[in-house]
Amino acid sequence: MRRLSGLDAAFLALETPHSTGHIGGLTILDPSSAPQPLDLDRFIAVLQPRLALVPVMRQRLAEVPLGLDQPVWIDDEHFDIEYHVREIALPRPGNDSQLAEQVARIHARPLDRAKPLWEAYLITGLSRGRMGIYMKIHHAAIDGVTGAEMLKLLYDLTPEPRELPEDDFTPRPAPSSLRLGRDALLRLATRPLEATKLVTDALMSVPSLASVARPYISGMLRRRDGTADGDVISLSPTLAPPTPLNTEISPHRKFSFRTLSLAEVKEVKNTFECSVNDVVMAMCASALRRWLIDHQALPDRPLVAMMPVSIRSTDVGQVDGNKVSAMLVPLPTHLEDPLERLHAMQATTAVAKRSQAFIPQGLVDEAVDFSPPALTARAAKAWFASHLFKRVPPFNVVISNIPGPPVPIYVAGARVLGHYPVSVVADGVALNMTVIGMDGGLHFGLIAARERVPDVDRITDYLEEELATLLALAREKQAEAEARQRPRAKRAGPRTRTSAPAATARRTRSGTSSAGQKPAMASASKRVARASRSS
Questions:
Q1: Which strand (E) or helix (H) includes residue 125?
Q2: Which of 87, 154, 249, 414 makes the best surface tag, with the fewest CB within 10 Å?
Q3: pLDDT for res 201
Q4: Region of residue 291 (phi > 0: left; psi between -120 and 50: alpha; otherwise: beta)
Q5: Residues 243 and 182 in one domain
Q6: In contact, 430 and 247? CB cutoff 8 Å
Q7: Alpha carbon 171 to chain centroid distance?
Q8: Does residue 411 fall inside a structural domain?
Q9: Residues whose CB is less than 8 angstroms from the CB of residue 485 and which lie 6 or more positions away in sequence, other chains included
């Protein structure tokens, strides 16, 4: 019996008639490497013994009487794996759009809280002989990092399945309501001590938070005075502008996925001396900017992204609830030039990381856990009913970058070609952009409210185009550096025409203005032209 933490329980309170609290993942397989056909029976046979590695997959929630404490995980005495593992087929040859549509429909359906909170689907009929596995599990059970860890637990690192001990699952008896109520009353007796610790932690964080906020405040003042146009820290991250993404949503979803080259992202990262995450965030900022321009809704100040941050220890194989915090990061969607966006993203992320370092890691979890679930649920309903998120959105979009296994993984000998996260959207946050790095690729999964972002595929296209733009600029810079290193006599000669990569960079430059200007920006075009002349 394991009690949910406050953060775990918050994902239960997140569920409304419009939103669900589970996360998922779509895995694409190449079954040609499997020693035998992968059908539903084979998939169940592979999955069954591995459930012992993730105990929560055979546990259900038990509510505490009167909602006095958080629910607890207990063994499901009627667990049946065949209820949780299912099979669907696309009309052959199923394309990626049909696959994304099926995943969106399944993901929109809530999980049955009377049973273990997960489902898995074997998907056949994909084009080019591929197969798919879509699995969803409630966010109350795992976070994004443990979701990636589950890949290594449930799948294999070699084509040959590993040896596993025989599964002899015997469910433990469910605790009585009397015991659950008694334990809850005992915890109530400690609430004064918890309150003291909570207030102490909050007060101790105030001086550090004040020092961290100073760059944001000074940036706001400089912008207001008109003396720091283009300042990379130009607003407080708590002042998110209203956008079409920050309003009430329906229960219906749209999903889009794409794999981009991690090697190309690293080439951009190495050339411009930033991090992989900086490049990913700059790509997201560009894609959001272009989508908002398409819909004539680009704000004149940066969007704000909420980035989940893992605070999990380095213990291997732990799959036990949520160990996450969050930081708010301004996105330079107001900047037209790709390199200016990248450098601005690098600077704002650095400031956001410094602010996160000063926040006590357990403070948010303790604050949520301090309130009884009955009160938390009422507070969540009041928040959504108030529609305050429409007037003062705390952030515009969720962007998450999750590390995955850097090596190939297999399911019953079938190699995994890609794994695409499918996360959570809710009233006030109609788009979630999650990426997992795995086996040489960055696998993007974008989930959106259908009526707010019906063209979510366009955003994934813009991600790919922005990477092409940054890669072309990186290679132009490399060519320019190589040209400077050649002897002067060898450099002399007629000027050459602009190279194809540079032309491509100008054509795919993201960020047309609201006045309908072409995407190519003057400053970036001058850089490319100078690089072409020097080569």
A1: strand 118-126
A2: 87
A3: 45
A4: alpha
A5: no
A6: yes
A7: 34
A8: no
A9: none
Give the domain-ending residue among 168, 189, 210: 189
pLDDT of amino acid 354:
66
For residue 343 the two structure tokens come to 């450098």
Domain end (from 174, 189, 204) = 189
Mark whether 65 and 15 lie in a shared domain.
Answer: yes
Q: Kindly give, in sequence order, each residue whose CB lies less than 8 Å from that of residue 66, ignoring residues fewer than 6 positions away.
A: 181, 374
User: In whole angstroms, what is the distance from residue 12 CA to residue 14 CA?
Assistant: 5
- Provide the pLDDT for residue 228: 38
Phi, psi (deg, nearest 5) at residue 254: -125, 140
Is 22 tagged catalytic?
no
What CA–CA distances, in Å, run from 204 to 289, 358, 363, 367? 38, 10, 11, 15
Cα–Cα distances (Å) from 182 to 74, 189, 466, in that order, read 17, 11, 57
Residues facing 134 on adjacent strands: 26, 121
Residue 391 tokens read as: 């007037």
Q: Is 247 helix (H, G, I), strand (E, B) or coil?
A: coil
Q: Where are the alpha helices (DSSP H) in 445-495?
A: 456-485, 488-491
Residue 481 and residue 445 share a domain: no
Task: Indicate the DSSP class of residue 50.
Answer: G
Distance CA 255, CA 321 (A): 25
Per the CB < 8 A criterion, the answer to whether 448 and 460 are in contact is no
Mean pLDDT by 10 residues, the chain (535 residues): 80 86 94 92 92 91 84 94 96 95 97 95 96 94 67 83 81 86 71 46 43 41 38 50 93 98 97 96 98 97 86 52 71 96 91 58 52 56 58 85 89 94 94 95 98 97 98 96 75 49 44 41 44 41
- According to the 3-state scheme, what is the secondary structure of 320-345? CECCEEEEEEEECCCCCCHHHHHHHH
Do the bridges between strand 2-3 and strand 22-30 make them parallel or antiparallel, or are there none, so unpaired?
unpaired
- Catalytic residue, from 139, 334, 419, 443: name it: 139
Range of the domain at 485: 474-489+496-534
Count other Cβ atoms within 10 Å, centred on residue 525: 17
Token couple for 292:
């908002």
Element (H, E) at 415: strand 414-422
Gap between the Cα atoms of 484 and 16, Å rounded: 60
Q: Is 420 exposed, middle or buried (0-12, 13-18, 19+ CB in 10 A)?
A: buried
- For residue 258, the cross-strand partners are 444
pTM for the complete prediction? Answer: 0.80
Q: Are residues 274 and 206 in the same domain?
A: yes
Which CB contacts under 8 angstroms, 24+ apart, belong to 240-243?
A: 240/303, 240/304, 240/393, 240/394, 240/395, 240/396, 241/299, 241/300, 241/301, 241/302, 241/303, 241/304, 241/393, 241/396, 242/299, 242/390, 242/391, 242/393, 243/292, 243/297, 243/299, 243/303, 243/393, 243/396
pLDDT of residue 224: 36
What integer pLDDT is reported at residue 174 of this predicted model? Answer: 87
Pairing of strands 72-75, 2-3: antiparallel
